[in-house]
Amino acid sequence: MSRLIVVSNRVAPIQEGKPSAGGLAIGVLDALKETGGVWFGWSGEIVGEAGAPVVEKGGKVTYATVGLTRRDYDQYYRGFSNATLWPTFHYRNDLSRFDREEYAGYMRVNANLATKLKTFLKPDDIIWVHDYHMLPFAQELRKLGVANPIGFFLHIPFPVPEMMRTVPPHEELIAAMCQYDVVGFQTDADKQSFIDYVERTGRGHFNDDDGMLQAFGRMLKVGAYPIGIYPDAIAKAAEQFANRKQVKSLRDSMRGRKLIMSVDRLDYSKGLVERFQAFERLLLNAPGWHGRVSLVQIAPPTRSDVQTYQRIRQNLEGEAGRINGRFAQLDWTPIQYLNRKYERNLLMALFRLSQVGYVTPLRDGMNLVAKEYVASQDPADPGALVLSQFAGAADQLPGALVVNPFDLSQMSEALERALSMPLAERQARHADMMVPLRENNLSVWRDSFLSDLRSVATATSVTEKTVKTVRQGATEAKRPAAKA
Ligand code: ADQ
């Protein structure tokens, strides 16, 4: 079988017993560990001068990493990726800025990384590129003559065309994305937004029957591949870690109180302020819960050198302090806000200990925490999940109490309902959610994406000529472009 080359902004080997990295790293590493292959990307180091990739072997996985110069980091990572694309793709274009030089840096780093990867490539390698940092990566590889199958998976949401058009080089970016052979999204809605952009601007046509998009002179597969977890492994870990010191001490400190758990990277897309305020509303409207419930929010800072992330941190600390000041009693702190990472298995045990999982992002590609929360529960006495309708996971977790995170009253009512939910209802909802979690686990995500990449690549190379001819016809019959 052909070798798998995974490319992502950050290569982050996860060591047993260490705090875990983000969702992308977990998904990618679990996938690579099974098939074996190469993981290529940024080492996380800032270097004086970018050199050749450093290659290390860890079991079946080879890690090939490169450093970024300060300028590359500022323009490509801190700039265009995280101050333009991330906010806009999460529908926060009010927080987004555009700087031409940062965009040029983004394109330059993609080109440099492509040149470095090329030295590793063998003709029958399959290349799987991840996330918004690398939208133009295939285009750069194609410029270097790389004809291997290249797939792309977007871990975050893809915005509706009107929002996409607020990113000034939107058309260049979409044209670059069409250089992949497969473009995958977390949900049908994200997939549809991408297709809508291409069709409404008259740049191509999507065929629903075979999932193929003909655009910018290319034929590519466009699909939804919701990322999953390994629910049974998580359930086992949660059980095994139940007697860890930290879990026991949290259990003791609860002294019979109910526990609402939230775990996120500290990010404005996760809706943390709204979440705290909805909890405050519960305490305000239902004083019977005073002293009987606590919210534990674990949120380690990320991207702390991006300005908006500094502001959200201050804002959140202010809100937690204000709410605690308003309601706390000598022996009860309503919100415990912990600013650090924890070992993944320990988190799963904390989820199992709690009565409510409170996962309310304003926008999220999938949200693995929601899935992990459900998988960690004891089926005999499971907690209930309060979940935002704007997380991709909402499509897949039918037993959750789905809320609009902009509606604080609805969220506080859902919290109350979750806290008071009878055992039989909790069991039934948990069982309902475990079915899709098992059916669409992480291997299904990986295998369905890679199988589409393999088959589309074969088909495309055979029909390349035909596509070009068809494309000429399509251009002639092109629909008028939508008004921007
Ligand atoms: P993230 O935005 O990082 O991922 P998420 O899917 O929730 O969001 O993944 C976070 C992962 O990190 C989870 O596995 C969680 O257990 C872990 N984690 C979070 N906080 C932690 C902490 N304090 N300590 C240790 N571990 C912690 C992006 C997209 C998501 C998409 C994933 C995967 O934004 O929408 O689901 O990629 O595709």
UniProtKB/TrEMBL annotation:
Keywords for this protein: Glycosyltransferase, Transferase
A Pfam family assignment: Glyco_transf_20
Presence of the UniProt keyword Transferase in the record: yes
Any one Gene Ontology BP term: trehalose biosynthetic process
Catalytic class of the enzyme: transferase
Keyword presence, Glycosyltransferase: yes
GO molecular function, one term: alpha,alpha-trehalose-phosphate synthase (UDP-forming) activity
Domain of life of the organism encoding this protein: Bacteria
Catalysed reaction, written as an equation: D-glucose 6-phosphate + UDP-alpha-D-glucose = alpha,alpha-trehalose 6-phosphate + UDP + H(+)
Listed EC numbers: 2.4.1.15
UniProt pathway annotation: Glycan biosynthesis; trehalose biosynthesis
Family according to the record: Belongs to the glycosyltransferase 20 family.
Entries under PANTHER family matching the protein: BCDNA.GH08860 (PTHR10788:SF106), TREHALOSE-6-PHOSPHATE SYNTHASE (PTHR10788)
Known partners and oligomeric status: Homotetramer.
Xref: NCBIfam families: trehalose_OtsA
Biological function: Probably involved in the osmoprotection via the biosynthesis of trehalose. Catalyzes the transfer of glucose from UDP-alpha-D-glucose (UDP-Glc) to D-glucose 6-phosphate (Glc-6-P) to form trehalose-6-phosphate. Acts with retention of the anomeric configuration of the UDP-sugar donor.
Protein name, entry field: Trehalose-6-phosphate synthase
UniProt organism field: Caballeronia hypogeia
